[in-house]
Amino acid sequence: MNMYDDATKMTKEAMDNSLKSFAALTKGFQQMAAETTDFTKRSYEHQASFFESLMQAKTFDKTLELQTEYAKSAYQDFVAQATKMGEIYSDTAKEAYKPLEATASSAVATSKDVAEKTVKKAEATAEKASNSAKTN
Predict the structure, then answer these.
(1) Stated pTM of the model
(2) Does residue 27 carry a pLDDT above 60?
(3) Which residue from 46, 47, 60, 99 has the least number of CB within 10 angstroms?
């Protein structure tokens, strides 16, 4: 292959891998949105249920007990959701990086090949020039 073919191949691979990366990001963002929507819905239902129970409480002690239970469960739900979202963010970043890593590896390999070919051509030209100078 010549230098132009190598550049064309690298550009095509880079574009294909960029599109794969964007697809992984899109999928991750959709997963994040769906997870956030589900959490919001569960949280709202939990709040509504708590409020219903609170309105039915007959004593201050029962109200305090319900509030404590709600605060504890809401905190646990939030921590679980934050952990889950962190995992989704991490997985999305890893998946989006994989194609770009392939592009970088390919570019390094192609650059090495081009450099080696260039050095060989330069050495051959220098040797020809040296032999030509000796015969004159």
Answers:
(1) 0.68
(2) yes
(3) 60
Beta carbons of 30 and 88 less than 8 angstroms apart = no
**Among 46, 45, 23, 39, CA closest to 85:** 39
Q: What angle do CA 13, 19, 23 make, to 5 degrees?
A: 145
Measured CA to CA in angstroms, residue 65 lies from 48, 53, 58 at distances of 17, 11, 12
Average pLDDT (107-114) is 78
Classify the C-alpha dihedral 19-25-31-37 as positive or negative. negative
pLDDT confidence tier of residue 87, bands split at 50, 70 and 90? very high
- pLDDT of 75: 96
- The number of beta carbons lying within 10 Å of the beta carbon of residue 78 is 12
Residue 46 identity: H
- Any idea which residue has 């260039």 for tokens? 118
